[in-house]
From TrEMBL:
Alphabetical keyword list: Chloroplast, Coiled coil, Heme biosynthesis, Iron, Lyase, Plastid, Porphyrin biosynthesis
Molecular function GO labels: ferrochelatase activity
Catalytic activity: heme b + 2 H(+) = protoporphyrin IX + Fe(2+)
One Pfam family named in its UniProt record: Ferrochelatase
Keyword flag Plastid: yes
Any one Gene Ontology BP term: heme biosynthetic process
Protein name per its UniProtKB record: Ferrochelatase
Enzyme class: lyase
Domain of life: Eukaryota
Family according to the record: Belongs to the ferrochelatase family.
EC assignment: 4.98.1.1
GO annotations of cellular component type: chloroplast; mitochondrion
């Protein structure tokens, strides 16, 4: 019994030594008091869930009760010493070869949290994803080819999982760490199967996105929620979620350490512009769907710069958003436009900081390191450097381990009798309720009330985007009704998430395409035969023409000869009449 005591003391010490930017409040059904030891990091002025949204009344602390007499405990003994603990890391995923690019893009754009269609047009989600993935695959393949033929994201994320496992075991927390990708292997479904196989009874879900967005963490958690609802084993498994962790002191210090190190590589560090480049999202996600991403990103930048100022680093800085796709308006300012503007203002040195990412992938290795660097040099910026992604940086991994330990008292906090509540993922409210809060604000993305303006304006950009989407929908309707078009000739069948119905449709379309190709080849062969026949007829006509010319020439020569003989006869008759006749003489 001595070992569990030491084990739990170390965890309690770890909890006591951690610091937080805001206290987490205990929920006991009657009162709310700050914990002596900080637990989950949540944003300032945020209602318990680190998603910065107004929660529904059913999610408020006073409305939650537990089915067991005990309440949420601050002592990890009851949580850690009983059952097998697992940590599930959620991430985007990426193609590991050029052949994986198109199916990966299909899985990405088939996600309704990436392309948010109105309810009336959601049946077009998969055809639209197929259309976009086929259209974008060639350019994307060029990008992946330039970084080695595939994304390193899986390798790096698995290295982070192993580093996190070791860090937790060093703290005497025996856990298994799993990796679940949203759009490529290992898929979240594959990770869940491993969790069930290993008999995990307590699960901490940790998205590897520092800031929460409905298109990143939200999408992964929504998928996980649907998986939980359909599995009896998962329904009974205790679990908790760390929705975002950009405010954690360890994360902020790790980012500041890397930035400070890179600044020293410049000849004049004090003149360097610190350029935070974040992955963008459509503006409608923030303004109409209530996505907290922009607010959390801005606060994250402020916290990092505050840490640097404590270290006497007072450089100018800016935040911009990259990787926009399509004609609709995304969060501004855009990274490429900002780089050009900084060049015009005479900025000579830039330190790029990929603030959204904790792993190297195509957006850092190709988009920032190649495209934006070239643009910067063309814009007159002479010195360019980039802060590497955190990867397995020790301070960062140690902080993630602390976050997992601090969340353990909340594993199973929602152990209520109601089945639907037991299926929830977030400790104080289900992910479905959390995302429904955004949906209720979004109201199916109603069109903003704007007045048409001429010129390159926000309203013009909005209308251009709608016109483009309408054109795409018209093309898709024509594809479905006629069975002919771009997709049916060039589309590649996705390797995952394809249902039997869609497979049958693809089979029918494939058969039609093959039939069309066969008919086309037969028509081409017939045309070739006709062409050969016409060539032979032309040759025959030429020969006939030559023969006729020869006959005409011979006929002409005969006519001339006969005419000359006739002239000779005429001249001969005249001479005889003039000479005297010998007999008469």
């Amino acid at each position: 019994m001595a070992q569990p005591v030491i084990f739990c003391r170390e965890i309690s010490a770890s909890l006591a030594n951690c610091t937080s930017y805001s206290p987490f409040h205990q929920v006991d059904g009657q009162s709310s008091v700050p914990f002596a030891a900080s637990c989950l990091r949540v944003p300032k002025n945020c209602s318990l869930v680190a998603a910065r949204c107004s929660l529904k009344p059913s999610m408020m602390p006073s409305a939650l009760v537990t089915s067991r007499p005990q309440q949420v405990s601050t002592d990890p003994v009851n949580v850690v010493c009983d059952g097998k603990i697992g940590v599930l890391l959620l991430n985007l995923g990426g193609p590991e070869s050029l052949e994986d690019v198109q199916p990966f893009l299909f899985n990405l754009f088939a996600d309704p949290d990436i392309i948010r269609l109105p309810r009336l047009f959601r049946f077009l989600q998969r055809p639209l994803a197929q259309f976009i993935s086929v259209a974008r695959a060639p350019k994307s393949k060029e990008g992946y080819a330039s970084i080695g033929g595939g994304s390193p994201l899986r390798r790096i994320t698995e290295a982070q999982a192993e580093a996190l496992r070791k860090a937790l075991w060093e703290r005497n927390v025996p856990v298994k760490v799993y990796v679940g990708m949203r759009y490529w292997h290992p898929f979240t479904e594959e990770a869940i199967e491993l969790i069930k196989r290993d008999g995990i009874t307590k699960l901490v879900v940790l998205p590897l996105y520092p800031q929460f967005s409905i298109s990143t963490s939200g999408s992964s958690l929504r998928l996980l929620e649907s998986i939980f609802r359909e599995d009896e084993y998962l329904v009974n498994m205790q679990h908790t979620v760390i929705p975002s962790w950009y405010q954690r002191e360890g994360y902020i210090k790790a980012m500041a350490d890397l930035m400070e190190k890179e600044l020293k590589s410049f000849e004049r560090p004090e003149e360097v512009m610190i350029f935070f480049s974040a992955h963008g999202v459509p503006l409608a996600y923030v303004e109409e769907a209530g996505d907290p991403y922009k607010a959390e990103m801005e606060e994250c930048v402020d916290l990092i710069m505050e840490e640097l100022e404590k270290r006497r680093v007072h450089n100018a800085y800016t935040l911009a958003y990259q990787s926009r796709v399509g004609p609709v308006e995304w969060l501004k300012p855009y990274t490429d436009e900002t780089i050009i503007e900084l060049g015009k203002k005479g900025v000579k040195s830039i330190l790029a900081v990929p603030i959204s990412f904790v792993s190297e992938h195509i957006e850092t290795l190709e988009e920032i390191d190649v495209e934006y660097k070239e643009l910067a040099l063309e814009s007159g910026i002479q010195n360019w450097a980039r802060v590497p992604a955190l990867g397995v940086e020790p301070t960062f991994i140690s902080d993630l381990a602390d976050a997992v330990i601090e969340s353990l008292p909340y594993v199973g906090a929602m152990a209520v009798s109601n089945l639907e509540a037991r299926q929830s993922l977030v400790p104080l409210g289900s992910v479905e309720e959390l995302l429904a809060a955004y949906d209720s604000q979004r109201r199916e993305l109603p069109p903003p009330v704007t007045v048409w303006e001429w010129g390159w304006t926000k309203s013009a950009e909005t209308w251009n985007g709608r016109a483009a989407m309408l054109a795409v929908l018209v093309l898709l309707v024509l594809e479905v009704t006629t069975g002919e078009g771009f997709l049916h000739q060039w589309a590649k069948k996705p390797s995952f998430h394809s249902h039997k119905a869609s497979e049958q449709v693809c089979e029918i379309h494939s058969t039609k395409s093959k039939s069309m190709v066969t008919n086309l080849l037969e028509e081409m062969a017939t045309a070739n035969k006709e062409q050969e026949k016409m060539k032979k007829e032309i040759v025959s006509l030429k020969e006939e023409n030559r023969r006729l010319k020869d006959e005409m020439k011979k006929e002409q020569e005969g006519s001339v000869a006969r005419f000359e003989r006739l002239l000779g006869l005429i001249h001969g008759g005249s001479s005889s009449s003039k000479e005297p006749c010998p007999q008469s003489t």
